[in-house]
Specification:
- A hairpin with a 2-residue loop joins strand 3 and strand 4.
- By secondary structure, this protein is an alpha+beta fold.
- The protein starts with 5 loop residues before the first strand and ends with a helix.
- It has a seven-stranded antiparallel β-sheet with strand order 1-7-6-5-4-3-2.
- The chain is globular.
- It has three helices and seven strands, in the order βααββββββα.
Length: 155
Amino acid sequence: MSSDLIGKLETDVEIKASATKYHHMLMKRPHHISNVSSDKVHACELHEGEWGTVGSIICWKYFHDGKSRVAKQVIEAVDEEKNIIIFKMLEGDLMEHFESFKLTVQATPKTEGEGCVVHWILEYQKKHGEIVDPHTLLQLLADISKDLEEHLLEE
């Protein structure tokens, strides 16, 4: 396997909401994200397990790169102390281009002032070298994080 097929992208998004609130929204109430970011996320359904528990299977319907898309993922790990969730892709549009795909999100309280830094990591293995790195997906996740900021500040 060629090392140019393995990739990792990361980004940080500063938001004014607390790390705990952000983590709780992604972990326990991801099905509410479509209400907050409806132009990007159309639905989030629990297929198996319970919201926020390891092994639970979630199906997302979202809009990305001009098309409606679907992603089925399993919650691979949760660390409530460090506000980390790791999702592993099982099925969906992304899996047409990738052998494996993992998303990690961590919300860390800012050292100064209010709010937190949301750190997204995408780790993946492409099916072949013609596949472009998923920079637009990383931007979509950053944009959704900003949409959630507004909602969480209103709570």
